[in-house]
C-alpha cells in the first residue's frame, strides 16, 4: 500500500465540496428542531429541491435562479408538513416519513421530461488573493459559490440563535412551548417559519446535487443524503458549530476510506465502507450528546 | 375563524369514522391527480383499492396481502412500545437485516441436513440477531446518554454493508457460479418458513397475529403496558411510580429489535428465500409509518399494515394494467398518509366556527 | 376445493388462454419487470428503451406492460405472477436478483415465456440473456491505456460480482497491451447508484493521479468530477452520457437491448420461441460503443475502431491467451480463448492487477 499517494491538501479541499449538500440540509433541520419540531422528511424535501432547482436552471439557463427555485420548492413542500403538524396537530414522525414518500413521487413525476439533460454549468470561484495563498488557498478558497453560501448560512444561524432576539424566541418555543405561549409568543407562527426555512435549506442541498455534483436529474438521486443530514443534527447536539464538525467528520471518513481503497490498503472493503457510520457513533459516544430541545416532537395546541 | 377545542375524551365515533374519511379524501384527490395524468380516475382508484380484494384474480392477491403486511405489522408492533415510552428506535431496518443474517446463517450451517429442530433454532437466532443489534443503541443510551435516533439509524447502514459482505462472502452459495447471494432457504425443507405458499401463510404471518394479541394484552392488562404509557406521558410520574427508565429503554429496544429480527428471519427463509445484496426493501422504515397510522394500538397497527400492503399491491396492478408510473403511486400513498394523519385531529378535538374568545 | 387446487385450475385455464393468444388471436402482451425507476438514466432506462423499440416495431400487434422499481424477492414474484395472470405471453425480468422468482413463477405458468437477464437458471419456458459488456471494456482499456499520461487509470467498481470483475480484467488486459506501465487503482463503491459517493470516488481517484476514470456505476457524477478536474477522461456507462462529450466523455458502453427484445417478441408472434441462452456482444449490437470523440488522438481512435471491428467479426476474443491469473498461475495458453463458463463465474484478477477482490 502506498499512502504517499494520498494528498492531504486535495483531500481536505474535496471534503469541503462533498460535505456541502449535507451541511445545507442539516442546518435547516437544526433550526426546525431547535423550534421543537422533528421533521423526518428531509430526504423528501431535498429531492423536491433537486428537481425544482434543475427544472428552473435548465429552463432559465441560470444556476442561481435554479437554487432560488430549489429553495422555494423545498419550502413549499415543507408547508404541507407544517400545515399538518402545526394546525392539524398530526404526529410529526409519521408526517415527516410520509413527506419523504410524497417528495420522492412528486419529484419523479416532475422530472419525467428532464432525463439525460445536463444542468447549466456553475463554475468554481477562484477568490482573488485568498485563493492564491499557498496550501490554504486551494483548500478553502477555490470552490463553487454554494460551498460558501452553505458556510455563510451556518454562521448566520449560529449568530441568529446566539445573539438575536428572534433566535431567543425560537429557542424558547423549542424548549418549552407552553411557557413561550404564556409569554405571548406565537408558537405556531415561529414554528411554521422554521419549518419553511428548513425546507428551503433542504431544497438547496438537493439542488447542490442536481446542479453541481452530478449535475443531472435522475430519480432518487439524493440516495439517502437526507437521512445522513438528520443524523448529523443529532450528532451536533443541535449546535451549528458542531454541525460543521459532524458533516466534515462524516464526509472526511467517507473520502478517507475511498482514498485508502485506491491506495491499496489491506483492509476489507466492507469494513472501510462501514467506517463513516461507526466513526460518527464512536465520536458521539466520546463527546457526549447535548440535550435535545425540550419540546422536540411534541404537538402544541393553545388551550386558551 | 376556525378554532380547535380539545375533547375531554377522544370521540369514539371519530375513531372509526376518520380512517374512512381519509380514504375517501384520498380517493377524491387521487382521482384528480390521475385525471390530470390522463387516466380514468374511477378505473384507477378501483384498480388500486378494490382489485386486490375483489377482482377476478383476488384469490391470488389476498394471500399476497398477508405476505406483504406481515413483516410490517410484526416490526410495527415492536416499535409501538418504544414509541409510546418516548424511545426512538428508527433503525428497525438494520435489526431486520441482522436478524435475517443470523437466522439464515444457522439454517445454512445445517444444510443439507433435515431435522425438525433447525427451524426453531433459526427463529431463536433471528430474534437474537435483531435483539443484539438493537441493544447497541439501547446500551449506549443507558450507559453514555448517546442519542438512540442517531445510533440506530447509523447502524442501518452498517447492517447494509454487513449484508453485502455476507452475500458476497461467507454465506455465498458455493453452487452459485460465483454470483452473490446465499442458497435458497425456501427450497430447503427444514429451514423454510412457508406453511402454505399459495395461501400466503408462513410463520411470520402467524407470529404477526400472535404479536398483535400479546401486545394488546400487555398494553391493556399488564403492569408493563401501564409503565410504558406512563413513561411516555410523564417521565417524572413514572419514576415516582418506581419505573426504572434505563431498564425500560433496554426492554423496549430489545422487544422492537427481536421482533424486527424475527420479521427478517421469516422473510429470508420464506418469501425472499435468500440472503442477497438487496435483501432489505425498507420494511423497517415503512413500519414506523404503520405504527403511527395504527395510533400505536395493536389492532390499529394490524389494520394499518393491511392498508399499506393493499396500496403496494394495488399500485403494482395499476402500473402494469394501466401504465401508471410508480411516482403516481408514491404520491397517492403520501396523500393517503397525510389524510390519515390529518383527520385524526377530529378524534381528539372539536372544530368550532366563530370568533375566538378573548383569553 | 383447497386454494391450491383453485390456483392450479386457474393457472391451467390461463395457460391455455395465453397459449391461444400466442397464436395470433389477439395482441401479444409483453411484460417487463424493472429493478429501478425508468428515470434512472442507466440500467432500467435502457431496458425501457428496448421496450419502446418493441412498441415502435410492432404497433398494434403487441401490447407492452411494465412495473418499475420492483424489489428483488417476493415483490418480484408477485409482479411476475400478476403479469402472467393478466395474460402476458412473454415476460422480461431484467435483474439478476429475479432469478429464483422467475424460475418459480415460470413453473406455475408453463405456457408463458420468460426471459431472465444475466442469470444462469433456465427452464423450458425460461431463457436467459446477457450482454458481453467486457468487449466494450476491452475497447475502453485500449483507449485508456493510450491516452493516459500519468499511467494511472481509476476504476469505480460497484460490487465484486463476476460481471464487474470481468470488466476490470478486460479493461486491464487491453490497457496493459498498449501501455506496459499502466496501473489500475480500483475503488469499490458497494453501490450501483449513489451520485454523491460516486463523485467522491472519482475525486479520490483523480487526486491519486488517475487521468482516466472507468466506471461501473450508473450516475454521471464521475463525469462531472472529471470535468471539474479538467484534464481527466471518462467513458459513459449503460447509457451514452453524450452530454459530457467530447470531453471528458470520450466514448461509452451502451446497453442496447432493443434488437434482442424485438427478435424475441417476433419469435413469440411466429410461434418459434424456444428456451435459449443468449450472450451477445458487439456483433449483434447488444453492446453498443458510443462515438469515440475527437478528443482522442486520431491514431488511437483508428486502432480502437479496428479493435471493435475484430471483436465484431469474431476474429478476436477479448480474453485471448497467454494470460495468467493474479497469483501468477497459468490461465490461458497462447492463442487459447476463455470459455464462457469460466467467464460467467469469473472471480479472480488477471496478472498485474494489485489488491484483492473483496469477499
Short description:
The complex is a heterotrimer of chains A (304), B (359) and C (359). Chain A has 304 residues and is mainly alpha-helical.
Provide a descriptive summary of the structure in words.
- The complex is a heterotrimer of chains A (304), B (359) and C (359).
- Chain A has 304 residues and is mainly alpha-helical.
- Chain A has a domain at 15-114 and 130-224.
- The longest helix of chain A has 27 residues, at 8-34.
- In chain A, helix 1 (8-34) packs across helix 6 (145-163) and helix 1 runs antiparallel to helix 11.
- Chain A has twelve helices and no strands.
- The mean pLDDT of chain A is 89.
- Chain B is mainly alpha-helical.
- In chain B, 70% of the residues lie in helices and 4% in strands.
- Chain B is built from 15 helices and four strands.
- In chain B, strand 2 (194-196) and strand 3 (201-202) form a beta hairpin.
- The mean pLDDT of chain B is 90.
- With 359 residues, chain C is α/β, with parallel strands linked by helices.
- Chain C folds into two domains: 3-131, Response regulator (Rossmann fold), CATH 3.40.50.2300; 133-254 and 288-315, Rossmann fold.
- Chain C is built from eleven helices and 14 strands.
- In chain C, strand 1, helix 2 (43-58) and strand 2 (62-67) form a beta-alpha-beta unit.
- In chain C, helix 5 (133-147) packs antiparallel against helix 10 and helix 7 packs parallel to helix 8.
- The longest helix of chain C has 23 residues, at 3-25.
- The model of chain C is unreliable at 1-23 (pLDDT under 50).
- At the B-C interface, helix 4, helix 7 and helix 13 of B face helix 1, strand 2 and helix 3 of C.
**And the CATH topology of the largest domain in chain C?**
Rossmann fold
Return residue spans of chain B where pLDDT drops below 50 for at least 5 consecutive residues: none
Largest interface (CB within 8 Å) is between:
A-B, 46 and 50 residues
The average pLDDT score of chain C comes to 89
CATH class of the largest domain in chain C: Alpha Beta
The ordered H/E elements of chain C are HEHEHEHEEHEHEHEHEEHEEHEEH
Helix content of chain C: 40-55%
Radius of gyration of chain B: 22 Å
